[in-house]
Amino acid sequence: MMGSSVKSEVQWSPTHSDHFITWGTDISLYEVGPLSDVSSKPSCITLSEKTGAHLVASNNSYHYVKCIDICPQSKSDPLLAVGQANGKVTLTTFGPTSFDALGLNGKEFVPRHARQCNGVAWNGIDSNLLAGVLDKYKNDNCILLWDVMKSPTSSEGNLSPRLSQYNMNPVAELSKPYLEMGLSELAHSLAWFHHEPRTLVVGMNQKQIKTFDLRDATNKAISIASTKAVYGVCVNPYNDYQMASRVDSTIVIWDRRMFEKPVLNLPQNKAVMKVLWCPTRQNLLASLQRDSTVLHLADLRGLSNATMFDIGTEVVGDPASALERSVIPGSTQTITSFSWHPTDSNRLLTISMPGTLADYVVCDRITLNWGSGSSPFVWSHGNTTLKMLTEDSNMLLNDISAKIKQRATIDYGLKLDLWQNGDLADDDHLKKLWNWLHVSRSFVEDGCIRGSNSKHPGVKSALKLELPNTSSMGSGSCVSSVKTDFAGINNIYNTIYRSEDRDKALQLCGWNFDKDSASLTAFLDRLETEKAYTRAAAISVFNMKLRYGIEILNRGAEKNPQNAHLGIISMALSGYSEAPGSMWRQLCSTPRHLTDPYIRAIFAFLTSENGCYDSVLNENGMSVDDKVAFACIFLSDSKLPEYIIQLTAKLIEDGNLSGITLTGTSVECINLLQQYLDITGDVQSVSLIAARTFQPELLKEPQVVDWIASYRNLLDSWHFWAQRASFDIALSACNSSNKPSHQVYISCNYCGKSVSAYMQGLHRSRNSFARIAATSNKFKQMSACPNCRKPLPRCSICLLHMGTHGGPITTAATGATAPGTVSTREFHKSSDFSSWFTWCQTCRHGGHAVHITQWFKDHSECPVTSCMCQCFSVDSVSSQSFLQLCIS
What we know:
- The structure is a single chain.
- The protein has 7 domains: about 1-55 and about 330-365, no CATH class; about 70-225, YVTN repeat-like/Quinoprotein amine dehydrogenase (Methylamine Dehydrogenase, Chain H, 7 Propeller), CATH 2.130.10; about 370-410, no CATH class; about 425-455 and about 465-475 and about 640-740, no CATH class; about 475-635, no CATH class; about 745-830, no CATH class; about 835-888, no CATH class.
- It has 27 helices and 39 strands.
- It has a 5-stranded antiparallel beta sheet with strand order 1-2-3-5-4.
- Strand 19 (about 240-245) and strand 20 (about 250-255) form a beta hairpin.
- Helix 20 runs parallel beside helix 22 (about 720-735).
- It is flat.
- It starts with 6 loop residues before the first strand and ends with a helix.
């Protein structure tokens, strides 16, 4: 609050960036500064979190103030022109100033007939010129102009002879206007043009906007627009052709070059009270509506780019549009006025009903763009600054796009052995998934798991629960009771379930060991080597080997001082008691203080009653593989399917890649990977998993097609052509029946058929080519069309008939085959690039690729005599390094 007076209007000083005025019943001058500097001064008010203002001076000499404008001249003291309800325009200051010596302070400009002053405006360039507009009066003008600094020594050349009629006595004639216009008319608002100091625009008669040129001796309007939007006329400070005005609930945008009709109408929800152009941001227009707590902004940058065409006498512009938004400057109280800061970017001051002031900076709209090169993300910051997020920044921000790009450069997902891709992923979840895919495929190939159509069957498939509505397991499950001895305390009988299907599921979960053999010990020893002591102890206990689990915990405590608590846990386990009411079971049934999930699972298992293992099965910290393996051992045929189905649904909902252990590479796996993609954005992993592991029919699913297309487009945008080709090879290897057809081939000039013997012999079987390859390691080089026997064109360098090997060359294998293919002792490759056909698309001359490359090392013109074609310069992408790369 600022005292008892209600301040309803506010205006920044155009020349003093740290001063503004408010007025209502009195006029006050404030000085703005950092809040820490002005907080100790009297009459201090807070404008924002960083700025404050204190009252410098106040003037209560004027009543019924209708309008005020601050003189834009560079003086230490502000000079105000105050328009009043009786038509007077008075010049005033705050206390003694340099204007007192000029006789300007308190000077009044009085019209011949009293009526309301609707607006005053100082000329922005010639600051001695002041204009005012008044209500209508019969036989009197409504537009008055004064030269407040007029004197006999003033430069009369600045004004036309018509404007010098009041030059006789500067003191006596000062109050008289040197120019009057608009006889018997009504003027509502006015504005000077910023770059044409002798031109102003006035809204008049509730139906017209007129433009006046003061250099015209006739005082007539030079252009007129018929409209009811005659209020709040203002000129764009960056473009004198562009103006704005208002009426009721509409803002109208004008262009002086096509003044017959508006360029754009912006309808608003309520009546518009004020419209102002931003002086620091091009084409930004702010408006205030009646009884509103927000300011409305319109970005009209599209208008500045509009192209004007002169068709006959009509000027036509491109369709214009505006981007509109609202901002809440400070409090949520009703705003009565606002003012843009003259120099600070996008800064404005608002005043609300009770007189509360708010200093606010409008945030710019951010325009951003993704790039495919070294600057993947660029956005605008202010008017002249662009900010960039580099690839190094992306890595620091853990951005998935940077990870995808880095993985693509090291052939992630394309390694022949699936487990190798997990090492390249640099992610524990992906590493575990690729390892599981490798193991599951080996089980199928080795015959350990049979009867599945998938190359990577899951636990649901092994338990015959792959159908969505399956609620019971397949046949072959048998129940057996096993007599166990926990640490020699008692003979305890515990029920476990064994079947062939459950054994398959245990293998898929990584529990591929026999319960009563050395393989379990070897498995646990490996976990100890990996320092997974608690997991090893839990698996040991789950397999009825409590004593061995205690020993594992003791060894873990001995080898690492940080695991000293494991010794205490082993002591607690050594006191295990089966008695239902024993103190041990009562105290260990709820071990809430334990942080390790496997230790909690051990106690939950040992204190379970009546075969209820919910605490173990719902332990979030345990791996999915271990929980599913535990369920396959201890849950009955009626409970196991229910648990597996519920767990699968939960993992799919969470996008947890561990769920593939349950789903395998099935339709459910697609839903899981889609959820994982939605959460992480890792389109690379889901595409590669699909290409390397899915059956051909799953690759046709719409979701999978979208993944693959998106990843291809991403590689193309980065110009990763080699990675894109390797991905396509891996994808085609997954579906050998859907090989891409040949799209480009060289045809004979005589018969029009392909000159390749391989293309001509596509009807032959592969065995026929194998027999040909057996007799000769390569096809004979051809120099004639295999169909019509006409000779092929000659090379323009060596003058020999061109020709290549007519098909693939069979060669002994020297390394691993491409990902997804079957290893053989022989493989096929195409002919060397050096013998390929190469020709200019302009002059059609060419030759062997190696000869053409050598020629264009030293020449740019065609090698054929009398041909003036500049072949090398015609191809915009050709360069020596590019050609050398192709040959290598």
